[in-house]
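Students often ask why we bother encoding 3D structure as a string. The short answer is that it lets us treat folding as translation between two languages. Here is a chain of 480 residues written in the first language.
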Amino acid sequence: MNQAPEAPLRILVVDDEPDLRELYVLSLLREGWPADEAGSVAQALDLMSRHAYDVAIVDMRLPDGQGTDILAWAQTQRRSERIIVATAYGSAASAVQALKMGAFDYLTKPVELGQLRQVVRSALGQRPEAAAPQSPPPGALRALVGESAPMLAVKQTLRRCARGMAPVLIQGESGTGKELAARALHDLSSRAGGPFVAVNCSAIPEHLLEAEFFGYRKGAFTGATSAHEGFFAAAAGGTLFLDEIAELPLAMQAKLLRAVQERRIRAIGETTETAVDVRLVSATHRDLQRCVAEGSFRQDLYYRLNVIALTMPALRERLDDLPLLAEALLGRIRRDQERPGLRLHPAALERLRAGAFAGNVRELENLLHRAATLSASELIGADDLDLSPEAMASAAASGASPAVAQAPAALPVAAPPASDAEAQASLARLAAFLDAVERGVLEAALREGGGDIDAAARGIGLLPQQLRWRLRRLQLHAGA
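And here it is in the second language, the structure alphabet:
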């Protein structure tokens, strides 16, 4: 049976400047994407009422209205176009408003043609099929265990905001599953085939932040024996997840803001900027609004990151999920401890309901691990669960990530640099010294743990994923 030919792409360009419209259309044609043109809201709505488009590129300021008028009409008509808005430079408020109204993405004028094609290409990756909507990838939301009302609301929000490119800010207490939500968002989006790069902002020494985020070229400073691409480049075509975003120092916040606004980064040692194509998702357990009021977090960056807000509920707010959570966590413990018959007595489950769980799901997991280890049989009873304040505090703390890396006991002392070049050289020497100290600590931990990542991480108070990140950065291997 012959397959029906795929419907041709249709793109609409809406701008009141004929020269710009022609430039956009010619640039799109270079990619094989024909486009219709409109110079006003009325013309755009007339074309859209007669044709179905895959993508619409809409200027925010038009002679007879705003680009948001087209967005509002598309929302009420349940249109399938991915709408990209073009805003004037510095008009952050209008860009954020458009994203909140459902725009797929935005461009800042004057629009660079390479960036225009890149954003359109990303939007076309979400082109709806003529048949029924595809189901999300298997397992996209599986890790977010729970069917309570708060968790169903979280899952609904994730499905809805996965369709666009708007930045998402995930807030919630420690241990509520913020990274799991970010991964689910990535898996539900058209970027699921691209990389998901997770970064713990609190685990990177301040002097290395710029290099780790934006990369550096070979020879940029002493010790840079090879080029390093950085987190933004590593996440190209996918999602960059910035956990503990509130821990970034103000100087780095300013650099991150520029990257978010301009969609461009400059690696250390480079003279030109490069465009980046990432979906930015941030998370924090702190109240960012309070951080803004206290002056520890930039208001303009908060404004850019908080386009779509998602709050992960605390475990005490969804105790109806406790049976499902306990079973899912016990399944992991069964595999880890090779005890397929391990199970929880109903009385033990009832006792868990009395726990305060300040550390949320992470604390519950640690508590079950401890109970399984100490239990005399395969049936974990109520008496095997220690819910004393001391034990609960220990379970909450044992899974927590260290806020910052411990500084070495002694650092090399240098006189204040007399120039920018000397300052960079001084920072490079300091970075090399700290890397050497960290390398020694990690090598010793791996030796003591017999090369086992989990054992080595426990020995120095890190999570396994944090240790793996450090090993990759220092080009060490578990067998070191």
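Translate back mentally: The longest strand covers residues 82-88. Keep this in mind for the problem set.
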